[in-house]
Amino acid sequence: MKKIIYIGVVSIFVGVLSGCNDEPKSEAWYKSHPEETFNVYKECIDSGEASQNCENARKAAISFARSGNAELENKFLPLMRK
Predict the structure, then answer these.
(1) Burial of 46 per CB tally in 10 Å (0-12, 13-18, 19+)
(2) Is the sign of the CA dihedral 66, 41, 33, 77 positive or negative?
(3) pLDDT at position 15 over 60
(4) Count of CB atoms within 10 A of residue 74's CB?
(5) I need a surface site. Which of 5, 49, 55, 69 has the fewest CB within 10 A?
(6) Calpha distance 70→47 (Å, rounded)
(7) Is residue 76 a contact partner of residue 61, using CB atoms and an 8 Å limit?
(8) Half-sphere exposure of 77 toward its Cβ, with a 13 Å CA cutoff?
(9) Cβ distance 73 to 64 under 8 Å?
(10) Are 37 and 30 in contact (CB under 8 A)?
(11) CA distances for 57 relative to 26, 34, 47, 54, angstroms
């Protein structure tokens, strides 16, 4: 019985620690990672989330949509219209 309780406590502890690393990525980081920016910003739009992470992804997405790079503009402009 003690082993089950110990495993349960350790599992909860590991779960809590893994959720504590939600520090938002910077706008500069997103500007260096267009694919991640697209995925995160799309999820933010779909979920309605308004976190700092979403704001940083939004700013980077706007930069990509105005970048002059046709491939990035074609990818990000539809997100700007949502």
Answers:
(1) exposed
(2) negative
(3) no
(4) 10
(5) 5
(6) 27
(7) yes
(8) 9
(9) yes
(10) yes
(11) 8, 9, 14, 5
Read off the amino acid at residue 37.
T
- Distance CA(45)–CA(11), nearest Å, equals 32
Nearest residue to 59 (alpha-carbon basis) of 76, 43, 74: 76
Q: Which residue has the tokens 């309605």?
A: 48
Give the pLDDT mean for 49-77: 94
Return the structure tokens found at 21.
Answer: 């690393």
Alpha-carbon gap, residue 1 to 12, rounded angstroms: 17
pLDDT tens for 19-29 read 445 789 999 99
Q: Choose between 28 and 6: higher pLDDT.
A: 28
The letter for the amino acid at 15 is G
Q: Please, are residues 34 and 79 in contact by the beta-carbon 8 Å criterion?
A: no
How far is 82 from 65, CA to CA, in rounded Å? 13
